[in-house]
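#random but structural
TW: two for the price of one
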Amino acid sequence: MAPPAVLGSQKPGATDTTAMEQKIGQATSVILPLLELGALGYETYVVVYLICVQYLIDPSEDIQRDFDIRPRRSTGIALIVVYAILLLFLITAWARLLQLIWSKPDLIPLGDPSLEKTDANTKGFGFDQYDAYICDYQGLPLWCEKCHNWKPDRAHHCKELGRCVKKMDHYCPWAGGIIAETTHKFFMQFVAYASLYTTFTWIVVAIFFAERNSKVRGEAGWCMFSRLTYHRWGHGQEPGSAPLRRRFCLASSPSQ
């Protein structure tokens, strides 16, 4: 989900290794966010549907009778509301971050490959506005041999994009691209909301998984889950029948 790699910024003698690194970086910045979206969807299914709806709000009659579990609608609804708010904040910050990454505001323009450093014009980079700036041994601003242009302070050449980037922090495939001057704020928001969302999800799952284990101690773990779904999807099959046992075998047996 990052802007396309600019292979034209490479020097004529650039190796195939650099081009391969760019392709790998671009591919991971698309694949990893898609995997994250899939994980968010699965977490939503587990927390909202399996835990809040089927276990707390509307447990089946078999579960209520055999395991002494009563509906807790207020708890289930409250958890859904909190989960939806955290997910909304996370998706909003991530969408804004991706929008900025794709608009490419922090990329420094490519220079003229025919010009040498001593012939290039520094106008437009604002070096004259500063009392001091980082320079080379000749007293000139830093120069990028790959982009054929000047590098403002804290600008770095990104090998995944093949371009110099203003105030580059790092290239993050998990976020979808380059983290730099204008994207850093939304990246920090994305990380903060992701931390809150993940912490909340783990706490909810841990609490009710531990509760389920305590309820079914001494009995196969799949039994409770099969009974939980028997009322809705069993279609006349016994809770302990082979089809249901195979269908819900992912529910592990509790430790004795």
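TW: number two ↓
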Amino acid sequence: MRSNPAIRRFAAITVFAAALLLILLGCQSLRIVHQVRSPFQLVSVVDTPNGFRRLIFDGRLDGKDPIQSEMNLSKPHDLVLAYTQAMMAALPLADHRRRILLIGLGGASMQKFLRDLLPEAVLETVEIDPEVVRIARKFFGFEPDDNQIIHVEGGRAFIENSKTRYDIVFLDAYGPKSIPYSLATKEFLEAVRDRLAEGGVVCSNLLSGNPRFWDMVKTYAEVFPELRLIKPSGTGNAILFAPLDRPGLTPEVWARVAEAFEKEHPPGLNLPMLIRRQTQDRLRIPGRAEVLRDKIPD
């Protein structure tokens, strides 16, 4: 049976109109709270109808932008995004948690959570964009003090000039789309390793869909003796853990260490279950992967 051309045109117009309406409704559902053009990017703060606040860089605000940070307005110190919860699995891997460095501020989700969980720890955060710092303070409840320190400068410059040793280094510095190349090279990671205290650990938020994902993993493998990977369910994030002194670490051993940690510092995240279910015990780095260096080959 032949279809009527007029009916086909009508159906196509109807589908297009419905799609356009969904896009417009998605845009309208996000309320813009604040927007500013910083020296690095367009920074937007938006609220959702269900009570969450998001930080977005260079966004179209169509509901499809990568979310840099998200806060539950009724529970502003909770960790909302799955990748931030997964990164907390670094805490039991460190011998101590007295001084922690975070590269990248965003909406300060991890900073606020860690301050509540480890009130005696000194938390230092490095953020290159001064507008992001102002926004975190005004719209996300970030409050620097003697134990919650903020450095407004580039992460690499800070690492290379610092003389301080850290028990944990969290690497979560992103532009609108990806990690800056200068924060992914072997030379940078060697500088990070040199800033670790004995028994320390590096935890990095990577994106498994990044074309250079395996290059980044191989670069970490060149610098650190052990690597473990957690891929949070339902996300494109891949959280890489690089402990200095955990040879032969298995998910079960890690989970048991996490159980002991949670008895002393209950985070409300069930880290042992997360570790058991989502850890990739063995990394098989493809042979085509390359080590990222400061000097890009011609």
